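anyone seen this seq b4? input:
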Amino acid sequence: MLQNYFVYILTNQYRTTLYIGITNNLQKRLDQHYFDSQNAKKSFAGKYNCIYLIYYEGFDSSTIAIAREKELKKWRREKKNNLISEFNPKWETLNNEVI
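predicted toks r here
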């Protein structure tokens, strides 16, 4: 089944800051975060240069995706780190993997 909504986690170059978001167009959203980090720096991700995709999961329903985003945002950093490490053990940048 086609997944139309994504919950994603971005980080900065040093992997010290995490940003959790939701979108229906992951590539476009990554481009927006990058543009903001280079120009306006008005958003959290832009201000802290969170432009490196390290985690994402897809959903068929916006309602379920929003609920998952809210759930992840409530987690402690250690639990988020474990989730990322299970999905992406080396915390490699996944920006080029999304279409």
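DSSP finds four helices and three strands in the chain. The chain has one domain: 5-97. kinda curious what u guys think
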